[in-house]
Amino acid sequence: MSSSPKADVLVAVDTALRPTGFVRRGHVWLQDRGDGVSGWLGFGVAGSLELTPLVGVCFQRYDEVCRTLGITLTTPLVSAPLGYLMGEKPVWRWTFTPGGDHTAVASSLVDAVRKHGLPYIDRYAKWDTLARELIAKPETLLDFERARKLSIIHVLNGNAGAAGEVLKKERERVADKTDVYARSYRAFAHRFSLAFPAMG
Questions:
Q1: Within its chain, how far is the Cα of 48 from the centroid?
Q2: Can you tell me the distance from the alpha carbon of 65 to that of 61, in angstroms, rounded to the nearest whole number?
Q3: What is the mean pLDDT of the chain?
Q4: What is the pLDDT of residue 138?
Q5: How far is CA 93 from CA 26, 143, 196, in A?
Q6: Which of 18, 66, 9 has its CA nearest to residue 43?
Q7: What distance in Å separates the CA atoms of residue 196 and residue 73, rounded to the nearest whole number?
């Protein structure tokens, strides 16, 4: 039985990634940074043969709190499209030719990961740096994830007061709203107050 064109592309990418220390785990690739920290690489797939790489950083302690709170994680704590990190003349998508030799395209993609993705991972693989930046510039987080992520970051930093303040402010902001986000946020805040009584 022959493999699908998409599977062939991902095998080529996987092979090209091996020297970088990224290991495939399901639909993503992880690079062990020690101390419960991993570099993360995922791909948006358009059609079967266009890949848009995303790079990010995962922290085991953050993931564990999320699991405690019943949050299903599909993305790392922070991530960015590789194209966004490239500056001038960014490449957003790598296109593989059906039935072609994927080695050259996979190699070019991995070169870009090395040059632009790894410095991003290097920078944010340090918890203190990441936490400080996100707390100082919360607007860099998406609206629907900002309050959740910041409250968890404050908890992990041992700052109960700041976590409680974030929760309170967001609860007040969505108090009279009935949309999906508002309902899910109220449920999150409730679970948070049960898991961390001093901070709810």
A1: 23
A2: 6
A3: 92
A4: 94
A5: 21, 26, 42
A6: 9
A7: 20
- pTM for the predicted model, two decimal places: 0.90
**Beta-carbon count within 10 A of 23 CB:** 14
- Give whole-number Cα distances, 64 to 59, 69, 106, 152, in Å: 9, 9, 33, 10
3-state secondary structure labels for all residues of 123-190: HHCCHHHHHHHHHHCHHHCCHHHHHHHHHHHHHHCCCHHHHHHHHHHHHHHCCCCCCHHHHHHHHHHH
Contact 134/150 with Cβ under 8 angstroms?
yes
**pLDDT given at position 47:** 76
Amino acid of residue 190: H
The pLDDT confidence band at residue 11, using thresholds 50, 70 and 90, is: very high
Q: Where are the beta strands (DSSP E) in 83-140?
A: 94-95
Residue 163 has pLDDT above 90, yes or no: yes
> What number is the average pLDDT over the span 3-17?
90
How many Cβ atoms are within 10 Å of 193's Cβ, its own excluded? Answer: 15
Quote the pLDDT of residue 198: 65
Q: Which of 6, 11, 12, 3 is nearest to 105 (CA)?
A: 12
pLDDT (mean) for 11-36: 95
Direct distance between the N- and C-terminal alpha carbons of the chain, in angstroms, rounded to an integer: 55
Measured CA distances, 88 to 82, 91, 197 (Å): 12, 9, 48
